[in-house]
Amino acid sequence: MDAIIKKFPDARGDAAPNRPTREEAEAAVEVLIRWAGDDPAREGLRETPARVAKAYDELFGGYRQDAAAALGRVFEEVGGYDDVVVVRDIDFHSHCEHHMVPIIGRAHVAYLPAGPVLGLSKISRVVDIFARRLQTQEKLTVQIATAIDEALKPRGVAVVLEAEHLCMAMRGVKVKGSKTITTSFSGIFSQDRQERDRALSMMRSGV
Fold first, then answer.
1. Does the residue 93 lie in any domain?
2. Which of 97, 150, 162, 164 is catalytic?
3. Which of 137, 150, 162, 164 is flagged as catalytic?
4. What pLDDT, on a 0 to 100 scale, did the predictor assign at position 4?
5. pLDDT digits (tens, 9 = 90+) for 6-22
6. What is the pTM of this model?
7. Which of these is catalytic: 99, 150, 162, 164?
8. CA distance 179 to 170
9. Which of 34, 62, 112, 114 is in Cβ range 3.0-4.6 Å of 132 for a Cys bridge?
10. Residues of the domain holding 102
């Protein structure tokens, strides 16, 4: 985890030391409702501040989870397997750190083990942990790759994210349906184009 913390100081799974209380969070939501032009006292909005605070506790729960701990256990008995492992089509939901609007996408992760392997659910777990924070897609891609690289020390890691950013669809240019694709390659996948292309092909087709 040290490499992640050095590169991304906000990546540690600790709650912020100056985290507001639930009551302060609810009061802030009331201010935003008034800023939007509505009355937080009207019937339909009376419980909204509490609901939003509760939802944020879940949506941004990644700040209180440790990716290194989630990846901590590896399996040594792999029957001699030493080829690429791919987990594709991992759905994730994140939030743009610039507008706090959803990012909805899929992650595809590949690694070439140097012995031990990860439990498959651990890869999905680390995607979810980093996604449940305020993010840019570029940073999220590198955080996932760095966490797996540091935990497993494989011969290479490849991460591809494809996502729609609702900050583009709902505001600004209002472009709907466009996808942003980001990649991160380490080890053999950054050095050997044939191996990188093979991993990317498996991510696309599953074969």
1. yes
2. 97
3. 137
4. 56
5. 555 555 555 567 889 99
6. 0.88
7. 99
8. 14
9. 62
10. 74-205
Residue among 30, 65, 96, 162 flagged as catalytic = 96
pLDDT in tens, 115-167: 899 988 999 999 999 999 999 999 999 999 999 999 999 999 999 999 999 98
Summarised one tens digit per residue, pLDDT across range 166-192 is 988 887 777 788 899 999 999 999 999
Does the annotation mark 194 as catalytic?
A: no
64-93 mean pLDDT: 91
C-alpha closest to that of 135 among 143, 125, 124, 145: 143
**Catalytic annotation present for 93:** no
Both structure tokens of 154 = 């494989």
Domain CATH for 153: 3.30.1130.10
> Looking at the domain assignment, is residue 3 inside a domain?
no
Choice among 26, 135, 143, 165 that is catalytic? 165
Domain count, the chain: 1
Residue 181 lies in a domain: yes
Per-position DSSP letters for 13-68, written without gaps between them? S---TTPPPHHHHHHHHHHHHHHHT--TTSGGGTTHHHHHHHHHHHHTGGGGS-HH
Q: Annotated catalytic, 108?
A: no
Give yes or no: 98 in active site: yes
Instruction: Give the Cβ contact number of residue 134 at 10 Å.
Output: 16
Catalytic entry in 47, 98, 138, 191: 98
